[in-house]
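REQUEST ID: PR-0412
SUBMITTED BY: lab tech R.K.
PRIORITY: routine
TASK: structure prediction, single protein chain
INPUT:
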Amino acid sequence: MSELFATTGTIAAIATAVVPQQGSVGIVRVSGSQAMAIAQSLFHAPGRQVWESHRILYGYIRHPQTQQIVDEALLLIMKAPRSYTREDVVEFHCHGGIMAVQQVLQLCLESGARLAQPGEFTLRAFLNGRLDLTQAEGIADLVGAKSPQAAQSALAGLQGKLAHPIRQLRANCLDILAEIEARIDFEEDLPPLDDKAIISAIDKIAAEITRLLETKDQGELLRTGLKVAIVGRPNVGKSSLLNAWSRSDRAIVTDLPGTTRDVVESQLVVGGIPVQVLDTAGIRETTDQVEKIGVERSRRAANAADLVLLTIDASAGWTEGDEEIYQQVQHRPLIIVINKIDLVEESDRKIFQSKIQNPKSKIVTAAAQNQGIDALETAILEIVQSGKVQAVDMDLAINQRQAAALTQAKISLEEVQATIVQQLPLDFWTIDLRGAIQALGEITGEEVTESVLERIFSKFCIGK
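STATUS: complete
OUTPUT:
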């Protein structure tokens, strides 16, 4: 059995980020049968404070042998089963930074605890029945959420909004299986099965699975975000566009072409979707070795991006250089950004825009004047929605593992229907139906293998 499943004994870990000179509080979490004994050996609570569950004590953490004070701290006590892991849990709330929490963790390990594996606290919560797998994954998503919508989706998973429909689907499959197996065991005592009714019931289950599968792409967007590359010739206003969009001075802006030599990143949120914006070096032929490297990185960024913003200079018109870059990126999801529109006479703007050959999405901006950003964000969301990645239910967004299991369940149900149509014996009906039941059970953890648990919990941080 792997180390991940060595869930016996008492575990300890730092449950907060450890950053030098930052963070007012650092927490060391301990869970297991020896948690209270470790706390009592390390923590001195002056006065007549009562050591009861769900109380916070004030005092000092001391070395058990030398009695040297390590930190002034608070102790939070949560006795089983009213704790995150359903075991005895104590938390030392120390001063933030590096040294205090590291020293306290070391004292806990010397007192009999062992260092927790990644995700082991949540794994214990799952194994002890406090959480199902969808809720555990919701916790990981909540910790890593990059936008309010991503956090809301993760919280929905944590509250069981995904687990409930999955359990209902599995229960419906079990009811159908029970009907079929009853006919196998007591064929002479029961009326024959209604094939059409069974197929209709399976159709309803498959339709609900399809609805859940439609949330996969939205879930991926909320979790990983959208990578957007701003590309174009030198001095067309790419860096000004990034600065106006991010409302910062992330990129250096000058009138000299070739100022940007490397890819500059900025993290934004558009319509609830995390967006990683890459401002790239101007693409052109050059003899400057450093600029050549920047141009090559720009091309790689464009090819790796989910969406490309091809930026052109309205005052210069559609040039041969723009056409060359367009030919390189036209296979990617693309928006043409006509920048510096404020430098073009009003009477010439429509004529100019009509000359641009690209028929795809086009917007106009004056980045230096902070104009056109709302239109840009609207165009991006339209591209996202046109790709059919907008979820039906923003509160419900499945991940890749859950989607794979749902897909397998749907395939198994389709096989059941084919078996019924072919009028094969009832025993054959049950084979694929059991496959669907198992796939649905893997989502919530009612039927799960060690390898699946390893894959899920190894992605957690150690303190969670």
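NOTES: The first helix runs from residue 35 to 42.
REVIEWED BY: pending
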